[in-house]
Design a protein that fits this description.
Layout (H helix, E strand, L loop, with lengths): L2 H23 L5 H7 L4 H4 L1 H24 L2 H19 L4 H15 L1 H13 L5 H12 L1 H17 L2 H21 L14 H12 L2 H31 L4 H25 L5 H24 L5 H13 L1 H13 L6 H25 L6 H44 L1
Organism: Segetibacter aerophilus
GO cellular component, one term: plasma membrane
Protein name: Bcr/CflA family drug resistance efflux transporter
Length: about 425
């Protein structure tokens, strides 16, 4: 693949990955306006975020096998069309219940843009390059948390919150055209791949039997759920608790997102000296420590808006290291069935995210403590899974090591 085609491919994959974050981040500044317009509360509007996460979780499990059966492009095109229709439905919602339902459908369509890039990367690029490609995607992906809430806050202030979903639909139409005309098919349809429930479930079960997959996929998913807790809780914390405006919230969100982008690119530099397994271990220890500091400071009333921004900046900067390395390590054992493995990994991420965001609402007490506690808890659980899982990986590898040593001794003597 020449340099130009490689750049175009990475750009399109990055835009596909950005659909999910834009769908999440762009309407966050509008929570108070949506609540007022639909005659409900901000914490109830947050359930539209949870329904989106649940939709992505379920949708990824469905579209993963479809990507393996029909190739990559046809499911992508179908999903993007559904996303566009559901986005228009969101803009026309007259009650929060209808908005929650359309957000679920929007997620079902948009989730294919999160699964397909992982599978295409595994199809096209060598395994040893995967972590670097994921880091490049995060560079493109990182634009969304900077632009989305800021653009969303200005759109909401000028035109109202429904226009946010119209903008999402228009942008996705452009991405759909890029997929149709410029995205090459990386895997042809496989008629032998069964879509019956039993073989699909068996395929998922086989993926879950791989220690390297479940260790890094679960560790990455639970650690990443801290980001979703932040997404669910930050509108209330900053706009209601600290009293910042919609535009100021967009700016704060953008500043914190810079940490995510910068760390993802720093990851490429560090990968020249250390491997992904070494990096993710140090990062999860660091993130857990920052999470505990955030909880302690919040509980004792020692943090204000500025210190909260600083600690959240550090906490979320860790995600720039966690995602590319955990994804690369989880996907590396799979050359066949990469679509199913990618779907399962994405479903785990969104499922953990849905739980984390729901917990923030469930334990809502009018303070920032529920958000801080869930964020810290996610990173601590991720670290525990990593440390325990690595022992399992080492144990599984040990018989092969012993066999290799025996063969070496036999050849020597």
């Amino acid at each position: 693949m020449d340099k130009k085609k490689r750049s175009v491919l990475i750009l399109i994959l990055g835009l596909l990955c950005a659909i999910g974050p834009f769908s999440i981040d762009m309407y966050l500044p509008g929570f108070p306006a949506i609540a007022a317009n639909l005659h409900t509360s901000v914490d109830y509007v947050a359930y539209s975020l949870s329904s989106f996460f649940i939709g992505i979780c379920i949708g990824q499990l469905l579209c993963g096998p479809l990507l393996d059966r029909f190739g990559r492009k046809k499911p992508l095109i179908t999903g993007l069309v559904l996303y566009i229709v559901a986005s228009i439905g969101c803009s026309l919602s007259k009650s929060v219940e209808v908005l929650i339902a359309f957000r679920f459908l929007q997620a079902l369509g948009g989730c294919v843009g999160m699964v397909a890039p992982n599978a295409i990367i595994r199809d096209v690029f060598p395994v040893e390059e995967n972590a670097k490609i994921f880091s490049l995607l995060i560079l493109i992906l990182g634009v969304s948390p900077i632009l989305a809430p800021t653009a969303g806050s200005y759109i909401i202030a000028a035109f109202g919150w429904p226009v946010v979903f119209i903008v999402l639909a228009v942008v996705t139409v452009l991405i759909l055209l890029a997929v149709i005309f410029w995205l090459p098919e990386s895997k042809m349809a496989d008629p032998s791949f069964s879509l019956r429930p039993k073989p699909i479930l068996t395929g998922f079960a086989n993926v879950l039997k791989e220690p390297q997959f479940y260790t890094y996929a679960f560790a990455g998913a639970t650690a990443s759920a801290g980001l979703f807790a932040y997404l669910a809780g930050s509108p209330f914390v900053f706009m209601e608790l600290y009293g910042v405006s919609e535009k100021q919230y967009g700016l704060i969100f953008s500043v914190i997102a810079v940490g995510l982008i910068g760390s993802s690119q720093l990851n490429n530099v560090i990968l020249k000296k250390y491997n992904s397994a070494q990096i993710i271990r140090v990062v999860l220890i660091t993130q857990s420590t920052i999470g505990l500091l955030l909880v302690a400071g919040t509980a004792m009333g020692l943090v204000n808006v500025y210190s909260s921004i600083f600690l959240m900046f550090l906490f979320l900067s860790c995600q720039g290291f966690t995602f590319p390395n955990s994804a690369a390590l989880a996907m590396s054992p799979f050359s066949k069935g990469a679509g199913s493995a990618s779907a399962l990994m994405g479903a785990l991420q969104m499922g953990c995210g849905a739980v984390a965001s729901a917990l923030v609402g469930l334990f809502f007490n009018g303070t920032a403590l529920p958000m801080a506690a869930v964020m810290a808890g996610c990173s601590l659980i991720g670290l525990a899974i990593l440390l325990i899982g690595r022992k399992t990986i080492e144990y599984k590898a040990r018989p092969e090591d012993v066999k290799a040593e025996c063969l070496e001794l036999m050849e020597k003597y």
